[in-house]
Amino acid sequence: MTEHNGADAAFWDARYSESDRIWSGRPNTMLVREITGVRPGAALDIGSGEGADAIWLAEQGWQVTAVDISQVALDRAAEEAAKAGVADRVDWQRHDLGETFPKGEFDLVSAQYLHAPGEMPREKMLRRAADAVAPGGLLMVVGHAIAPSWNQRPEGHGHHDMTFPTTADVLESLALPEGGWETVRDEEFEWTKPGPDGEPLTRTDNLLLLRRAA
Ligand SMILES: C[S@@+](CC[C@H](N)C(=O)[O-])C[C@H]1O[C@@H](n2cnc3c(N)ncnc32)[C@H](O)[C@@H]1O
Questions:
Q1: What pLDDT is recorded for position 194?
Q2: How far is the CA of 180 from the centre of ligand 1 (A)?
Q3: What pLDDT sits at residue 154?
Q4: Where are the domains of the chain?
Q5: Nearest atom, ligand 1, residue 68 CA
Q6: Which of 96, 65, 8 is CA-nearest to residue 77?
Q7: Staple 47 to which of 39, 114, 119, 210, CB 3.0 to 4.6 Å?
Q8: Among 3.30.70.100, 1.10.150.20, 3.40.50.10210, 3.40.50.150, what is the CATH number of 12-212?
Q9: Which residues does a 6 A CB cutoff place in the pocket of ligand 1?
Q10: In the chain, pLDDT over 70 holds for what percent of residues?
């Protein structure tokens, strides 16, 4: 195990314990863009973090299973879900997704920024995620395409030793059966946010949205 093993619950519990909130509290932009208006069903959010996506999905009427390796993150997310009045629509489950995976079939499986420093078996997790998509359902994988410009320093939170696959890499590693899936969206997108000194910080991310044949 490396010093910063992102597949390690202790690493993530420590990371989440550093402050009351480490992510924005808002659902991910691409999830909102792509899923708004989709008929709700059962959704699975893998690597759900502080729960903003799962809560947003629940608010749209989805019955959500949200999974993370960090109990600290799950507890925080469950508190937020209760405040948002959707506690009964989200089932928070702790799994190390490299080892165990939630049971069931889902109309949407979402993996948003499932990145971690160290040796996380992301490809295996995503293959398992694809298996969990119901016929006619969606698999959404959003991630960094390159390390965020503001976090490439060794003293940052570890982006320096992560690899960021292209959507072609993700597709290849999924090894989906021919004719079994349709690519709905395959794109790279860039966005900026103001940095601490006002300078723009740029980030390039990518999105793969696939539909399983009905
Ligand atoms: C970069 S965060 C993204 C969180 C959230 N999806 C978001 O977009 O804000 C990655 C998340 O994956 C979780 N994670 C890392 N390794 C995991 C594993 N082996 N099994 C389950 N979750 C894991 C971490 O605890 C963390 O919450």
A1: 78
A2: 28
A3: 46
A4: 12-212
A5: 22
A6: 65
A7: 114
A8: 3.40.50.150
A9: 6-7, 12, 23, 28, 47-49, 67-70, 73, 95-98, 112-116, 120
A10: 90
Stretches in the chain below the pLDDT threshold 70: 1-7, 147-161
How does pLDDT run across 141-187, given as a tens digit for each residue?
999 998 666 555 444 455 556 778 999 999 999 999 999 999 999 99
Q: Which atom of ligand 1 is the closest one to the Cα of 52? A: 9
Q: Residue type for 58, please?
A: A
Read off the pTM. 0.92
CA angle 91–94–100, rounded 5-degree value: 110
Burial 110-128 (b: 16+ CB within 10 A, else e): bbbebbbbbebebeebbeb
Place of tokens 């009045």: 85
What CA–CA distances, in Å, run from 90 to 38, 85, 103, 122?
A: 18, 10, 15, 24
